[in-house]
Design brief:
12 helices; Rossmann fold
């Protein structure tokens, strides 16, 4: 599990700059006619340039925090480990440097809303830096299709800029309005595709595989150790079968341990229950589930789902609602942790 060594000063600094940039952008439009009367000026190009610029900025802030915090495996995507928010490595320094340049470009977009082609050009440079940022992260850990998604949408915004620069007349108000609305849709769709499954994922996955093949050789092997909750059948028709289920969970946890992870085995409460009966301590099954297992499930980073049972299915459903990674069946499918063995 990634551990922070003190307050995330660099992360806080970036957040402050984001707030300053957005504040400056809002201050700059105070005198615009559409601020006083939106519907009477709904066709104003500078209004939609302003919306486009803010969409890019706000979506970037959300995406930045999602990448820094890491993400569970979803829709075939691998687990994304949290990034160190501090400048402790070469990659951390380069990411921080790109973040500062990006914030300058965001500021440039928000103060130049009267020049649509300039804003589109700045967005192209923003996406070039996004691609660079992803390439740096790939040298730290896999990011799945997300690198390919960024390249695809960088090409989209380059095409939008070229259309505006060479194909549209400045006097063609309707065409410019359509281009801006399409760009706003692109800015939203880019973020949605990064984190959700879409029809274009096959292209993104192919591009990402090429990126990972080229840059993945530079990263350290393994992921950070994970706290993994072992979910599997426990209750059975006989004591012998119950013990088999307990042994299966223990065996899986030992394989996780050998991979460098930190397993939690709820099946071990079997022995606590036996001793409680000997001592006359009554512990209802509901207490084992709600007061014993679920609090530990909340603390774990991931779940290993060994096989179906009513309890295990419920645990997996809860884990997914919490946004945790779920590994199915074989402990061998869990990536090895850095420093394991």
């Amino acid at each position: 599990m990634s551990k922070k060594k003190g307050p995330a000063v660099a992360l806080s600094f970036i957040d402050i700059l984001f707030a300053v940039v957005v504040g400056v952008g809002l201050t700059g439009v105070v005198g615009k006619p559409w601020v006083a009367d939106f519907f009477a000026n709904v066709n104003a190009l500078d209004l939609w340039v302003f919306v486009l610029a803010n969409t890019v900025v706000v979506a970037s802030w959300v995406g930045y925090h999602k990448m820094m915090a890491g993400a569970p495996a979803t829709d075939g995507e691998p687990i994304t480990e949290p990034l160190d928010p501090e400048i402790r490595t070469v990659q951390g320094f380069l990411r921080f440097l790109i973040d500062i340049v990006l914030l300058f470009l965001y500021f440039r977009m928000l103060v130049e809303i009267d020049h649509p082609i300039l804003v589109l050009g700045v967005i192209v440079w923003v996406f070039v830096l996004y691609v660079g940022w992803d390439c740096i992260v790939i040298t730290e850990h896999p990011i799945g299709k997300r690198g390919g998604v960024t390249i695809m949408w960088a090409i989209f915004f380059l095409a939008a800029f070229l259309v505006g620069r060479y194909a549209l007349s400045p006097a063609n108000h309707i065409a410019w309005l359509c281009l801006l609305l399409g760009s706003i849709d692109g800015a939203v769709s880019y973020r949605l595709q990064k984190w959700h499954k879409t029809f274009a994922d096959s292209i993104a996955v192919w591009i990402s595989a090429k990126q990972d093949s080229l840059l993945g050789r530079f990263r350290k092997k393994g992921i950070q150790p994970l706290r993994i909750y072992v979910a599997g059948p426990y209750t059975a028709d006989s004591e012998c079968k119950i013990l088999d289920n307990v042994r299966s969970a223990i065996d899986a946890s030992l394989k996780l341990y050998q991979k460098g992870h930190l397993p939690y085995v709820p099946h071990l409460t079997h022995y606590i229950d036996k001793r409680a009966q000997e001592l006359g301590v009554q512990i209802p099954r509901e207490d084992y589930v709600r007061r014993w297992d679920m609090p530990w499930l909340e603390l774990c980073d991931a779940v290993l789902f060994l096989a179906e049972s009513p309890g295990a299915i419920e645990e997996v459903q809860v884990a997914r609602r919490m946004g945790k990674t779920v590994f199915d069946g074989d402990p061998g499918a869990v990536p090895e942790a850095s420093g394991a063995g």
